[in-house]
Amino acid sequence: MCRYKKGISAPDTGRLPANITLLLLLLSGACRSKKTWPVSYTQEELRKRLTPKQFHVTQERGTESAFTGEFTYHKDEGTYNCVVCGAPLFSSHSKFDSGSGWPSFFDLLKEESITLSDDFSYGLHRVETTCSQCGAHLGHLFDDGPKPTGKRYCMNSASLAFQPKDAPLDGACGSTDGKAEL
To answer: Would you please indicate which residues are annotated as catalytic (active-site) residues?
Structure first.
């Protein structure tokens, strides 16, 4: 028998007790499985094309500091796209000031544009949002947004590119060939 805590023992099976295993799983972060995305890039290519902050946020599931992102107070009309692959994600019409310090949206352009997965990092349960085309980490989804959806897509500015309403659909923003040009 192995003794884990006074009064609690478990058979010596070489495995951790279920409660310890669950705790380790919860502390490990997001529970997303390895997935092949429709659009992919090498790490080398991404490091060349993205800024260090964009790479950290989108590829290493980082978070920019609150109230520091380029699009936090952005009010122009247009479309917010994935900075990695150019997939259209949000309309400026669904953007709102949540007071959180990150760009927030209450609706997606298309439901299938984002993939959701459980995130248990920092000892919390959150819902991580990733681009459904390239798998880039975008931010998190919360259920405290305004009507009509009640959702708050809390995004990192570093994961977004902006396409102004009247601009041509070139480069990363609005690209359909999967190539992001920064």
So the answer is: 154
